[in-house]
Design brief:
With 275 residues, the chain is an alpha+beta fold. The protein has three helices and 13 strands; from the N terminus they run ββαβββββαββββββα.
Length: 275
């Protein structure tokens, strides 16, 4: 146990009590505290803590309580041995949570509720996971008053929504995402990683198919070009053959004309060209 010294008055960092009485209570404390950390991770002036002693009055270390989870708006993040309110611009935690266990007594919880009422808490939530029972209190002009309809209640400060199903409390962030345990977050992250890997594989397959199509199209273009060239060669050969045939026809015509002239000359000389 570490002990801090402030004007010769000791403000212990621990009250010697365990954080939780059982695994179920501990699991809920961690679930709420860590998800609140995630919710306000990008806001440097929101401090979230679990099982941290809160001293509201300087000089009175006996006046203290350790909420299972607390949120203080307007206070920087960082490590603390305890929450000494006079060192925190006299800002009291605005929201606190208590997770009940079978060891909690009604008198003890009444004292805590009075403490939170006396020292400025704006919202106070109590959840009993064994009985799946949720209570909430919100500050009015006359102090903390019970929230009459807690089902689907949205916290004014946190923006989170409380939904009591038949068996369990469900908490939802302002964006609609539910509070998840570390295991669930890891499973979601692994599933997301697998989906991303599958998408990468599908994208690579599509790229390969596109490349194959491109290559086939290129081959088809090359084949078409080859066939065009062959057709052009055939046309040129046909044209050449036509020209040769035409030349042969011309030569034959010339030979015929020479033969006719020769025959005419012979007949003029009285010679029968047919004899």
């Amino acid at each position: 146990m570490t002990i801090s010294l402030d004007c010769e008055i000791l403000y212990p960092d621990s009250d010697g009590q365990p954080m939780a009485d059982n695994t179920l209570q501990f699991r809920w404390i961690v679930l709420i505290k860590e998800n609140l950390d995630l919710l306000f991770a990008d806001q440097p002036d929101v401090f979230v803590a679990g099982d941290l002693l809160w001293y509201p009055v300087e000089g009175h270390p006996e006046i203290r309580v350790a909420p299972d989870a607390l949120v203080a708006f307007g206070r920087p993040k960082g490590e603390r041995g305890s929450y000494k309110q006079w060192e925190e611009d006299n800002i009291a935690p605005q929201v606190v949570f208590e997770i009940l266990s079978p060891g909690n007594r009604s008198g003890e919880m009444s004292k805590k509720q009075q403490f939170y009422d006396d020292y400025g808490v704006e919202e106070y939530y109590i959840y009993n996971p064994d009985r799946n029972n949720l209570q909430g209190f919100c500050r009015t002009e006359s102090g903390l008053r019970a929230i009459e309809e807690i089902q689907n209640w949205t916290s004014p400060r946190l923006g989170i929504r409380f939904v009591l199903s038949a068996t369990i409390l469900e908490l939802y962030r302002p964006d609609g995402r539910g509070f998840l345990s570390f295991l669930e977050l890891e499973q979601r992250a692994e599933q997301a990683n697998q989906r991303a890997q599958q998408e990468r594989q599908r994208a690579e397959q599509e790229r390969q198919r596109a490349e194959q199509e491109r290559q086939r199209a290129e081959q088809a273009d090359q084949q078409a070009e080859l066939e065009r060239q062959q057709a052009e060669q055939e046309r040129q050969r046909a044209e050449l053959e036509r020209q040769r045939a035409e030349q042969a026809d011309q030569r034959a015509e010339q030979e015929r004309q020479r033969a006719e002239r020769l025959a005419a000359q012979l007949r003029a000389l009285g010679i029968d060209p047919e004899s």
